[in-house]
Amino acid sequence: MKHICMPALVLMLALFSGCQMLQVAGPAPSVTSEEVGRQGVSGSGDLLEKTEPARTPDVVYVPTPNDVVDMMLRLAEVTKNDVLYDLGSGDGRIVVSAAKKYGCKAVGFDIDPERVEESLENVRKNKVRRLVTIKQEDIFTLDLRPASVITLYLLPRLNVKLIPQLDQLEPGCRIVSHDFDMKGVKPDAVLTMDSKLTGGEHTVYLWTTPLNKEEEDDDDDDDDAVLWLE
Description:
With about 230 residues, the protein is of the alpha/beta class. The protein has one domain (about 60-230): Rossmann fold, CATH 3.40.50.150. Helices cover about 25% and strands about 20% of the residues. The chain has seven helices and nine strands. The protein has helices spanning about 5-15, 35-40, 65-75, 95-100, 115-125, 155-160, 165; strands at about 40, 85, 105-110, 130-135, 150, 175-180, 190-195, 200-210, 225-230. Strands 1-4-3-2-5-6-8-7-9 form a nine-stranded mixed beta sheet. The relative contact order is 0.14.
């Protein structure tokens, strides 16, 4: 008796039945909205779905002017050996600038998928996919310990909410915030500058870990280093 191999048999059955041939394979891998929100999306990958934020973003997105970004990175003394985390990274301008100007690795976190998409486009356009990663994440659930530099443009109450996570950072980590302080924590420096791009005055705060916690009745700010730039 002549044996017919399985592929030939399938072909014969399809021809006799007038059916279209379909490739038989395992199920195609799928990515759920939850997985997209949970995993990192880097410049080297194009994985991005339109997903809703896990919750409403804490702030309305307002970009930091580029000259203020430059001053934040300078005040933090960023080097190529740093790992920079931008919490609430918006269109990715801070992580892109850090990678382009200092050659450091940088990770941007934002809960809003539209901001993530903007960041990815910025990363691609500036050709820093090797150094920059963008993640759609809730910043208040993050382990910040891999970072040596943290950048912020949040509200004061949100900076305070981050303190338990910032307390876990290695000694010597630099934290810079655009315009908003961190109640209960004394800054190492406060810099005020006039932005040529906005025509307005902007403030940058610098803290270094371990955080210098203030006493509740400590209202003396005389020891803060305040710089004025024009």
